[in-house]
Amino acid sequence: GEDVEQSLFLSVREGDSSVINCTYTDSSSTYLYWYKQEPGAGLQLLTYIFSNMDMKQDQRLTVLLNKKDKHLSLRIADTQTGDSAIYFCAETPGGYQKVTFGTGTKLQVIP
Amino acid sequence: DTAVSQTPKYLVTQMGNDKSIKCEQNLGHDTMYWYKQDSKKFLKIMFSYNNKELIINETVPNRFSPKSPDKAHLNLHINSLELGDSAVYFCASSLGGTTNEKLFFGSGTQLSVL
């Protein structure tokens, strides 16, 4: 399909690690992004990775990129209840001003 | 100060009416966007403007007309509202002209068409 695919739902216990996966569509995307949406709010950029990198770490967040499989993942270490939100991956297929979002993964953190 | 602000936050209206949503950004960005988020949280781009000029116009009914009076403002006017227009509409902005377009979003306008 042409959509940027993510699994719909993930539930983890507080303190565990969360891994959110994404399969994107366009191998020419220069940058790939992760956004977070809390209830009733707009999306907020969490982190991004340049397409010639395999991994990027930013405090509790680790982004892994597998360009061959067009697979992107976001690992959240020591997941907290405040991490409960919807997470969207995003790509820029064919051009830098059209950011296309994934289907979103709802992360539920159980105390 | 809110970076990207849109009004109103909630909009409830009858089918057939015409309504507008306003958006302003104080980030000095050149590019602004409208996205539509449906009930399944799927987010789809509608329009993009760069320095007041339309650059992206996805397959959106022509009842939707964006207007950008200056690069800090992008408004969305919707004519003859239909039930299927019910959604959350997000305005966003980005620097523009780079290969790393980080989007800054407004808090959304929840439109309910009755």
Calculate the mean pLDDT score of chain B and round it: 93
Summarize the helix and strand pattern of chain B as letters. Answer: EEEEEEEEEEE
The portion of residues forming beta strands of chain B comes to over 45%
Oligomerization status of the protein chains: heterodimer
Category from helices, strands and their pairing of chain B: mainly beta
Supply the number of helical segments of chain B.
Answer: 0
Using the CA coordinates, give the radius of gyration of chain A.
13 Å
Biggest sheet layout of chain B: 7 strands, mixed
Description:
The complex is a heterodimer of chains A (111) and B (114). Chain A has strands at residues 5-6, 9-13, 18-23, 31-37, 43-50, 55-58, 61-66, 71-76, 85-91, 100-101, 105-110. The model of chain A has no long low-confidence stretch (mean pLDDT 92). Chain A is globular. Chain A is built from no helices and eleven strands. In chain A, strands 2, 4, 5, 9, 10 and 11 form a six-stranded mixed sheet that branches. A five-stranded antiparallel sheet of chain A has the order 1-3-8-7-6, with no helix packed on it. Chain A starts with a strand and ends with a strand. By secondary structure, chain A is an all-beta fold. With 114 residues, chain B is an all-beta fold. In chain B, the strands form two sheets. In chain B, strands 2, 4, 5, 6, 9, 10 and 11 form a seven-stranded mixed sheet that branches. In chain B, a hairpin with a 2-residue loop joins β5 and β6 (53-57). The model of chain B has no long low-confidence stretch (mean pLDDT 93). The A-B interface holds A 30-31, 33, 35, 37, 40-45, 48, 50, 86, 88, 92, 96-101, 103-104, 106 and B 4, 31, 33, 35, 40-45, 48, 50, 55-56, 90, 92, 94, 96-108.
